[in-house]
Specification:
Length: 47
């Protein structure tokens, strides 16, 4: 469950120009490539 919240917080950080460690940027990039996550983002118009 924490992964979901972290993903959302990282998206918000990017939207507001808040710098996060490279490791978290890499995690966010990997998560956007997960098929179920990509489908959910597309369905919500967020991709």
């Amino acid at each position: 469950m924490a992964d979901l919240y972290l993903f959302v917080m990282l998206r918000w950080a990017a939207m507001f120009g808040i710098a996060v460690p490279e490791r978290l940027d890499a995690y966010h990039a990997r998560m956007t490539q997960v098929p179920s996550v990509a489908r959910a983002l597309a369905a919500e118009g967020l991709s």
